[in-house]
Amino acid sequence: MAYFLGIDGGQSHTTALVADAQGRILGRGVAGASNHTREPGGRERLINAINQSVEEALRNAGLLKRRGAADFRFASAHLAMTGEPEYKIAIVQEILRADLLVVGHDAPGALAGALAGREGVIVLAGTGSVACGETDEGRFVRVGGHGYMFGDDGGAFAIAREAMITALRNQDRDDPCGLTPAMLSHFRRKTLKDVAEDFYAGAMSRDKLASFAAQVGKLAERGETAAEEIVDHAACALAEMAVVTAIRLDFSHRPIYISYGGGVFKNTRLLTRFAAEISIWLSRTQIVKPRFGPDIGALLLAYRQAGKKAATKLLANIEETYARL
Known about the structure:
Blueprint: E1 3-9, E2 14-20, E3 25-31, H1 42-61, E4 73-81, H2 89-95, E5 97-105, H3 106-114, E6 120-125, E7 129-134, E8 140-144, H4 147-150, H5 156-172, H6 179-187, H7 192-200, H8 206-210, H9 213-221, H10 225-248, E9 256-261, H11 268-281, E10 285-287, H12 294-305, H13 312-324
Parallel strand pairs: 1-4, 4-5, 6-9, 9-10
Antiparallel strand pairs: 1-2, 2-3, 6-7, 7-8
Helix pairs in contact: 3-12, 5-10, 9-10, 10-11
């Protein structure tokens, strides 16, 4: 019997799904982060995350062999990975066996899952941001995703950074805003200078600073002017990424689905403004809630590379069996 593997490898966790040829998900496994392999300990972290998630999925499916993941051969496997997937190919080839094995970026997996294999565009805004889209003919475009230093507009880090800049600027002008007390409470520091020095000294990670973005969103929904401006700016930046992607794919003159993903979009104000901005430029666009997550998206890509389309029956089996996990 043929078995298919989809892996969503992210900055916080790695999820593996094992399914049969009919789309029935047989097992799911979750392990730790599998992001940048060029960082200290990155190679070992990747190997552990893949082995642990795949072995757990195989065990739950009743398919685990004596030697573990390396002893099992898949008909097709697709790994949708964050953080420089090109550096992970050789490592993955050492620890997984599959007739068809592809290691790619995480964004196409999120797109495939959100739109269930249909053509369209997705914008992802977690700690960073990226947009991508694909046509039925297979033409693919990726916009953004250039990292916290050179891009990632609209992502959580960018929102938190802008909040910090605004709070410091207002402090210098002796014009305090609601961002300051919220930030000091969130990071448990006495002054904004303490927060800034923690970050510069490496005592505060990018993810930790980015965690303040959720508080900015809450302040915006309560009517804090400075927070509203930051959230609106982020929404416009993310909408621009979607529009640019759609135009580059020649979607601007025909109906197109645009979806979204990532924690930033949990903010109602941002999502509403995002949709409104897109409608100004793309009048025939339909903003849709993601149907599936990126783990199922990776599985759908595993099917696709084996020549299996996302037919109605396949999707129904995926949806039904995933709900049981």
